[in-house]
């Protein structure tokens, strides 16, 4: 795919701005004072989240339209891949001529560098010569040692011979020849001892000098060795730090990977309309992907930020959205909520069917969800009602109005509303599924002056949108639907669930839905207890920022065999546990809680992993509720019940309910 230079320049500018600009945000209030107050606050939210998202390097399979090297002077945007290399668009920067002062400084620095090199070269040469001289001196000293030893032996031999003759002389047994020999030996010994003493003094002087020079040389070499080892050590430490940093980043990314995969295509919008196939694109560089730092794509933040420019709510809905006051003059905002299996999607399409009978083709409908899967579910459910509208997803290139029966009905992700295909279309009725999973700052772009009806369906007791840790504390993950419900806006609980066995939904019903749910379970051929907790005393093990529990994992694999149900899914909030399970049995279907939200299976096995003093991720009741409401017929929860009881929260309540 080719992109225009204008588009890539704009995207790069956004990436750099998001990365460099820290936005201050206060906690999002439950109510807004005015339309402009809401827009200002939500604009800051998007910029805040963009800044946090584009701060750190990430690992990503498909880096198209992601930013690179934002912490350097040469940032860029990846717009294509080729083998193991990426094609990067960079801003063309005009090279300014150097001033005379800069040139002078560079020359001065070059002279200093050259002098230092010459000094180092001279030092190295002197050290080599010193080493050579010391080696030669060592050889000569060893030769002198041998000569001294030889002279010492000669002196000893002559002294003994002289002493023997001396005894003969004392006893008057010596001949004239002995006396002459005695005189010769005495003279010879005097000469030899003098030579020995002179040689010994020379040896001592030279050896002391040799030892001093050797010590100095060895000290320098030892210092160089230690410096070299220190460099190697620091290099190894930096390598380990990078590896640990990458591992931590990878763990962090993997937690959000499923959510990112779920949202990535809709974030790209209809980018094929940015293609300009014949344009000569400049400032493009081919780079080895291992030599760059990849950051989040700025595109979704840029587009959602731009969408706020279109916000202009009709006065009849304005106070409803701002403060939860009932709409006026026939305008409408309705909220439907309930757990999985209560027919939220069905309810929206049923209302769409009824409204289509009352309106003409000039009244346009946008039926949307935050994800592609949610949008496709709406589209397919509508077809069962004989409603055939326009499906606008990331890969759709045009709207073929002549090929659809209901040309005034558009099925799309929330994000696609802000793309080129639909940004100028007026929609009078907005219907959003999975509304509790769409952060409010990304919803407001839908709220334009022509909107008359808003229908929101979702479950605020499921996991909210993924935002930064700091943003979570400031209510950035909060949805429009959740906020309105929190300030008392009327909502309808869809209280009949048809997915789960009543034993499976019992705990969630009592804890999160006030015991109001009714069950119309159709039954199953599976003859097993629908709900069981398997108490096992495993040992948690920290792996980077994640956790695993081998004993628990082995029990889960054993359970899969015991259940013998084809559609069995294992769920854990920890990537390390998911990977461990894969090594034990590569055929298992394993998901994190976040990645399996919105889906279901005949049998679910939850592995809680933690087995010490804390329950970790499970302390968010919404995460537990997602895990508990995925199974249709059989649910098994494997974990250390004693650990559940140690920390106040949803798992402790579950343990006490046994």
What this model shows, in words?
The protein contains 17 helices and 20 strands. With about 650 residues, the chain is an alpha/beta fold. The strands form five sheets. The protein has a seven-stranded parallel beta sheet. The chain has a five-stranded parallel beta sheet with strand order 14-20-19-17-18. Strand 2 (about 75-80) and strand 3 form a beta hairpin. Helix content is about 50%, strand content about 15%. It starts with a helix and ends with a helix. Helix 1 packs across helix 2 (about 35-55), helix 3 (about 100-170) runs antiparallel to helix 4 (about 175-270) and helix 12 crosses helix 13.
Brief overview:
The model is unreliable at 254-282 (pLDDT under 50).
């Amino acid at each position: 795919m080719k992109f225009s230079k204008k588009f890539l320049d704009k995207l790069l500018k956004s990436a750099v701005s998001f990365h460099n600009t820290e936005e201050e945000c206060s906690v999002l209030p439950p109510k807004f004072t005015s339309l402009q107050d809401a827009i200002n606050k939500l604009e800051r939210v998007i910029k805040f989240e963009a800044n946090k998202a584009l701060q750190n390097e990430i690992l990503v399979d498909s880096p198209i339209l992601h930013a690179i090297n934002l912490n350097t002077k040469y940032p860029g945007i990846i717009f294509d891949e080729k083998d193991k290399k990426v094609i990067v668009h960079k801003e063309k920067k005009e090279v300014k001529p150097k001033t005379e002062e800069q040139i002078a400084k560079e020359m001065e620095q070059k002279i200093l560098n050259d002098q230092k090199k010459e000094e180092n070269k001279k030092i190295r040469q002197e050290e080599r010569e010193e080493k050579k001289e010391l080696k030669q001196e060592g050889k000569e000293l060893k030769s002198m040692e041998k000569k001294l030893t030889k002279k010492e032996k000669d002196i000893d031999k002559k002294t003994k011979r002289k002493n023997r003759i001396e005894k003969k002389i004392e006893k008057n047994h010596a001949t004239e020849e002995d006396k002459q020999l005695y005189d010769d030996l005495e003279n010879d010994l005097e000469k030899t001892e003098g030579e020995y003493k002179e040689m010994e003094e020379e040896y001592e002087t030279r050896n002391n000098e040799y030892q001093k020079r050797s010590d100095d040389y060895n000290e320098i070499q030892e210092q160089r060795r230690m410096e070299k080892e220190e460099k190697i050590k620091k290099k190894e430490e930096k390598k380990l730090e990078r590896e640990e940093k990458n591992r931590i980043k990878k763990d962090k990314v993997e937690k959000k990977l499923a959510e990112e995969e779920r949202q990535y295509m809709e974030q790209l919008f209809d980018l094929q309309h940015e293609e300009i196939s014949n344009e000569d694109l400049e400032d493009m560089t081919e780079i080895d992907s291992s030599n760059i730092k990849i950051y989040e794509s700025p595109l979704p933040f840029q587009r959602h930020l731009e969408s706020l420019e279109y916000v202009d709510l009709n006065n009849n809905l304005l106070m409803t959205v701002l403060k939860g006051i009932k709409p006026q003059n026939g305008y409408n905002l309705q909220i439907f909520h309930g757990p999985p299996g209560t027919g939220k999607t069905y309810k929206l399409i049923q209302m769409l069917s009824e409204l289509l009978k009352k309106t003409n083709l000039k009244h346009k409908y946008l039926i949307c969800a935050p994800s592609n899967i949610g949008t496709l579910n709406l589209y397919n459910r509508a077809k069962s009602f004989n409603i055939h509208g326009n499906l606008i997803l990331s890969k759709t290139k045009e709207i073929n109005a002549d090929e659809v029966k209901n040309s005034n009905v558009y099925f799309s992700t929330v994000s696609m509303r802000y793309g080129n295909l639909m940004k100028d279309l007026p929609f009078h009725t907005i219907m959003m599924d999975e509304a509790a999973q769409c952060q409010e700052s990304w919803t407001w772009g839908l709220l334009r002056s022509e909107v008359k009806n808003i229908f929101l369906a979702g479950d605020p007791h499921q996991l909210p949108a993924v935002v930064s840790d700091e943003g979570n504390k400031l209510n950035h993950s909060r949805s429009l639907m959740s906020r309105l419900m929190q300030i008392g806006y009327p909502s309808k609980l869809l209280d009949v669930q048809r997915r789960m066995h009543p034993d499976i939904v019992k705990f969630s019903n009592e804890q999160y839905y006030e015991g109001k749910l009714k069950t119309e379970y159709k039954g199953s051929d599976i003859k097993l207890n629908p709900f069981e907790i398997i108490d096992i005393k495993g040992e948690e093990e920290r792996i980077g920022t994640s956790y695993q529990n081998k004993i628990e994992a082995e029990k889960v694999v054993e359970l899969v065999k015991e259940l013998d149900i084809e559609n069995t899914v294992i769920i854990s909030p920890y990537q390390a546990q998911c990977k461990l399970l894969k090594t034990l049995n590569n055929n298992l279907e394993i998901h994190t809680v976040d990645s399996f939200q919105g889906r279901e299976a005949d049998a679910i096995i939850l592995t809680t992993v933690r087995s010490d003093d804390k329950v970790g991720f499970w302390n968010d009741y919404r995460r537990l509720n997602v895990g508990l409401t995925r199974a249709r017929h059989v649910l098994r929860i494997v974990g250390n019940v004693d650990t559940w009881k140690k920390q106040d929260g949803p798992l402790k309540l579950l343990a006490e309910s046994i």
